[in-house]
Design a protein that fits this description.
The complex is a heterodimer of chains A (403) and B (176). Chain A has 403 residues and is mainly alpha-helical. Chain A contains 14 helices and no strands. The termini of chain A are far apart. Chain B has 176 residues and is an all-alpha fold. Chain B folds into two domains: 84 residues, Four Helix Bundle (Hemerythrin (Met), subunit A); 52 residues. In chain B, α2 runs antiparallel to α3. Classes of the chains: A mainly alpha (403), B mainly alpha (176).
């Protein structure tokens, strides 16, 4: 076992040797190593988060035909540090009518739930926080606690815009959780496991080939779960100021902001772990560090895609958002899960490339059926809209016999 | 005393304290948030017992769905969110009766149970999650209760759709 082969365990073994040399007990060493691991992971992810601020600003600038931050350091790379310092030294305001404790806990929950997600995402074949056998459900549970953080922020602010934003956010997140959870079942069915590292390891062929439709549904519901445009109703600036974080300022707002950016990258990492083979890539097995690089390349590509959609789309109306979820994504996800379950049982033991082909074909057929239904629906809608409006109809001629 | 026992004691005190706050807080939203903490404490107990799946399910179902529903319901009921709402309602004696009966029954059951003094057997199962899943759909196992619960949930789902459906309500209105 060398550093290149298995860096985390190499460091862990070395530290264990060092600490037991100092005469500490085995239990205590385990606790110390766990705490160090938590701090290392959280610190690493938060450092990436600072970089994300720069990435996000550069991305939106390029998409809007601007240059973006370019004054501080090469390509404006020191700009996010300045942003962080500005947020840290801003006055920290708690409104007098706010519920003080809940108001201050909410941003911590919002950021902590995102950081906790990284506990189950495998960075490399042997670099991972914990290989939970219910990793997929853990992701859903953290999303649930994140929703709670938002509703706490909205209620504790004691501001009607904040409360409205929180209501919208919770309604949206609870609705879009359903197609997301259903679609999370597709990789689970294919890998026969809920552990994320097992799912990554069983992707000889990336699952996006097996379930392109599932990947698309996951992408769309993640976009809604993140509250990014076109699903940014919870923070609709032109309607409800800034939504649930209207009253927050300084670093408390910073935590919501950091949480939001990191959440997008986290969903990028989850997406790549579930559908794009996570850390898999050439030589990732022998040099796990390469796996970390592959995972983050994929996650940043997904982050770019999230941002691309966010800065290109106008905001949806509430009814459009809910109809899109309940009348399209949820039935489609259900159909996909049923198809995948039946096919994966029927095709047990078949050669893997043939399996992938059949799954792909089934997905294409589902997409074609959906498009056909949508076309029929759109034709009906167009006829309804182009027909005479009820307001414009002349009043009916008075009839002689009123029943 | 090892680390697990210390964590257990801290969690137990926090859970019981939060449960006490649920029934003594005047503000209903605060009470709901304390309830969340109680439910989270129970999830921690599941983790300590090595039941990761139950812990995660507890968080998803009780915190992610039920607690948020409770908070919504409280916020949409205007009178309840004010600080000076009545502390107890007229059914307090029924509540005391049920609580006393439940406590008495549980105490009676535990007094004749020898689980406190015996050592817990080690978990024999390799992957408890797979066994749980297989037992739920096994005819020798729990397939009947499982299917009954599904039918019950489906009935609740259809019922809620019928209540919320404008078409049905409109037709009823026309008939009257």
């Amino acid at each position: 076992m060398t550093f290149l082969n298995d860096p985390i365990n190499f460091i862990a073994t070395w530290l264990t040797g060092l600490l037991s040399g100092w005469g500490l007990g085995d239990d205590l060493i385990k606790v110390i190593l766990t705490v160090m691991g938590i701090f290392a992971t959280a610190g690493f992810v938060l450092l990436i988060d600072i970089l994300l601020v720069w990435f996000e600003r550069k991305l939106v600038a390029r998409l809007q035909d601007r240059i973006g931050p370019n004054r501080l350091g090469p390509y404006g790379l020191i700009q996010p540090i300045a942003d962080v310092i500005k947020l840290l030294i801003k006055e920290d305001i708690t409104p007098t009518t706010a519920h003080r404790i809940v108001y201050n806990i909410a941003p911590i929950i919002a950021l902590a739930t995102v950081l906790l997600l990284w506990a189950v995402i495998p960075f490399g074949p042997r670099i991972l926080g914990t290989d939970l056998n219910v990793g997929i459900l853990f992701i859903v549970a953290m999303g649930a606690i994140g929703t709670l953080g938002i509703i706490m922020a909205g209620w504790a602010s004691n501001n009607k815009y904040a409360l409205l934003g929180a209501f919208r956010a919770v309604a949206q997140m609870i609705s879009f959780e359903i197609p997301m959870v259903l679609v999370l079942l597709v990789p689970v069915l294919l890998a026969r496991s809920m552990g994320i590292n097992t799912i990554v390891q069983s992707q000889e062929i990336w699952y996006i080939v097996f379930a392109p439709l599932g990947a698309l549904i996951f992408f769309l519901s993640a976009q809604a779960e993140l509250g990014r445009a076109p699903f940014d109703l919870p923070e609709a600036e032109s309607e409800i100021v800034a939504g649930f974080h209207t009253e927050y300022s300084g670093m408390k707002f910073g935590m919501f902001y950091a949480g939001e950016l990191l959440h997008a990258l986290t969903f990028g990492a989850i997406f790549s772990a579930l559908f794009l083979g996570g850390w898999r890539g050439p030589w990732a097995e022998t040099y796990p560090i390469l796996g970390v690089v592959y995972l983050f390349i994929k996650a940043f590509l997904l982050y770019f895609a999230f941002g691309w959609v966010k800065y290109s789309m106008p905001r949806l109306r509430v009814d459009q958002m809910l109809n899109f979820n309940w009348k399209m994504l949820t039935p489609l996800a259900l159909a996909l899960v049923i198809t995948t379950a039946i096919l994966s049982k029927l095709l047990e033991g078949v050669q893997i490339w043939l399996q992938a082909g059949i799954f792909f074909a089934a997905n294409v057929i589902l997409v074609l059926i959906t498009v056909q239904i949508l076309r029929t629906f759109a034709r009906g809608e167009r006829e309804r809209v182009s027909g005479p409006r009820p307001v414009a109809i002349s009043p009916e001629p008075p009839s002689a016999d009123i029943s | 005393m090892d680390a697990v026992q210390i964590i257990f004691l801290i969690t137990a005190v926090a859970t019981l304290g939060a449960a006490l706050m649920v029934v003594t807080t005047r503000n209903m939203v605060s009470a709901a948030l304390w309830l969340v903490m109680t439910l989270f404490g129970v999830a921690v107990f599941y983790v300590l017992l090595g039941a990761g799946f139950l812990a995660v399910a507890q968080v998803i179902i009780y915190i992610g769905a039920i607690a948020i529903l409770v908070i919504f319901a409280v916020m949409l009921t205007r009178r309840l969110t004010s600080e000076n709402a009545p502390f107890i309602n007229s059914n307090w004696w029924v509540a005391i009766l049920i609580a006393a009966l439940l406590f008495g029954g549980l105490s009676w059951m535990f007094s004749s149970w020898d689980g406190f003094s015996t050592q817990a057997p080690p978990l024999a199962m390799e992957n408890p999650l797979v066994d749980l899943g297989a037992a739920l759909v096994d005819p020798q196992g729990f397939v009947l209760p499982f299917e009954l619960a599904s039918v019950l949930l489906l009935a609740a789902l259809i019922g809620s759709i019928m209540i919320a459906w404008e078409g049905a309500a409109g037709q009823r209105g026309q008939k009257n």
